Amino acid sequence: MDSISRLCAIDQTRLDDNRLTQSIINEAVRAGLLSEKQAGDIHLRLICALGECVEWYTAGDSSSVPAEKAQSLFASMIYCLDVYLAALPDACAGVDALENEALYALYRKGSSQAEQLTRAGRKLYEQTLLSRISTGLNAYNDTLDRAIPEFFQTYDVRFGAHETMASIDYPLAASDTGKTGIKYMLWYLQQLILENTYCLRFAAGEIERLIRRQGELCHTDGHELLVNIFELVLLVSYASVMASQPVCGLSISSQACAGLRAKLLSDSHQAFGKARQELFRALEINEPALQACVSRGLDKCEAQLLTAAREDCLAALLMIPPEEENAKIHFSDGEKMQAREFRALEKELRACPDAGHKAALIHESISSFEDLLDILAGGCLYAGEYAHLFDSFDEIMLAMLLKSVQLSPFEMRIAEDEPLHLTENEREWRSEFSGYLKSLEKKRLDGLFRLASRIGE
Amino acid sequence: MELISLALSPERVLQAAVTEIVRTNERSQQYGLCLTPKDAKELALTREYSLRTSGRLEFGGGIVSKLIYAFCDSPYLYQSNYASVLNELTETFYLYKNETMDLLGDDELISLMKEYFDHRCGGSIELLQGRELYLLARNLRFGVRDYLNLSQQDESRDSGTEVF
């Protein structure tokens, strides 16, 4: 058969990337490029190659291995053969190689190629770390910090190439393709980079708020959830665009949600079409790979939004809190003290030895939040006295202080862009406040962050 | 691809194994030991059976020949017990390849079997299996560095306590 006929003979769409060797043999038989006897001979030669592989594995010390180990070595050998064949120009070249070359030699070549893929995977992992989302989601961080490095440490490209020994808990939006070994890891990292790239267009604090809200709806700590951050963010951002809300805000009001529902029920097709274009434009999604990743995600989002609109549970799907929880709090400060009175108060506080007395004095004397901040930064309190004072504040006051120090919600430390002009005393009370918050119950702390986010400028 | 479905013709494999076993007579006959083709076939079948029951796969059939060459000069082998002992040694070999968790190479295990058979077990397969090799496997499973030192376990033998 001439080369043109051979090129057309094998239907490439019928080849299974995850079982390439077997599917090439099957398709070659189907296309008449191989007879059944030739296919059988290849299988027998594979057994002989397995014998050489076993000899390599045992370093020539043993002529026999447990059957399970032989099966595993065989699977690894086939995996490496798949890697080798996938790198050839087409399936016909694969058939030629299987027929005419020593299969053990092909396995060794495939093993070397798998080693190169592993090196590429390590580099891809480093890129993934650079695109990492700042989040407290345990599954995400555990996967990046422990599971993936463990995979690269334990991956045996010679005798366990087909294995994926890693506890990768963080789920991706893309569905599992049935890949294993290094091919799976490469796919996982590539997808994760795309998802991270999309999510990095949004503020970490807003993403964290979504995760916490999801946790509340599930009556658990949001950081313990096995959720995909990209799916959460994509859903809310897409809905925001359709509801004519700021796309990066990741927040939709109840009224906007009602309007969105009406839009979806009247003409969802048009709504989705326009919204997709707007989303890509607003977030400058121009790279083809990212567009494909987002488009796949949007297909799922559209189905979810349409179903939720019909079932009248759009607010739950988009995690919109009840109206009263969302209402802005407007703050207007009280009257500031005169300078002379303020200095007298500072003197009295510094001389006072009792923490409880100090707290009571502050409550009695100060009616302005600005004065409170000045007292905290005035060096009037020492060590454990801060906690005593903070204990005496109500939730609103604590939320006000939280807003004023700009704490990173999941790292519980002062933001890295803290003003350089802060005095020693200002740093001290902020540090004491951060330590105090860390001692609070998680539920109460989440409530404070929510309250702080409602306080208007 | 199931390995079982890709097996070579059983008859051809058996015939090749029998031929190789009979060839060992060239060396063993100087010790007055000889295997008939019937003995060789039985030995080859014992090897197949042992591999199957021990859950192992073997590439190349040289183990029986290795056992023959290692044991043919044993003072405890006679023409009358030659075939039966070789059958038992073959079963013992594959059993203890598993029991020692493949930590010993073929040659090392055969060498130890010969050492124990001749110098510690008085030619008794029961003692070889149930005492010396049992203790050796136990040392290996427990990660004893000096795994060849079976004497620490000998207290139970001297006191008459059963080891197994």
Describe this structure in words.
The complex is a heterodimer of chains A (457) and B (164). Chain A has helices spanning 3-9, 20-30, 36-57, 67-86, 91-100, 103-130, 138-154, 181-199, 204-217, 229-242, 254-282, 288-311, 314-317, 323-326, 339-351, 355-365, 369-376, 385-391, 395-405, 424-438, 442-454, and one strand at residues 64-66. Chain A has 457 residues and is mostly helical. In chain A, helix 19 (395-405) crosses helix 21 (442-454). By secondary structure, chain B is an all-alpha fold. Chain B has helices at residues 10-23, 25-28, 37-54, 63-71, 82-99, 106-119, 125-141, 155-158; one strand at 56-58. The A-B interface holds A 22, 43-44, 46-47, 50-51, 54-55, 58, 61-68, 70-71, 74, 78 and B 1, 3, 6-8, 51, 55-63, 94, 97-98, 102, 105-108.
Largest sheet of chain B: none
Helix content of chain A: 55-70%
Classify the beta-strand content of chain A into a percent band. under 5%
Shape category of chain B: globular
Average pLDDT metric of chain A: 88
**Number of helical segments of chain B?**
8
* Structural class designation of chain B: mainly alpha
- Which structural class fits the helix and strand makeup of chain A? mainly alpha
Number of strands of chain B: 1
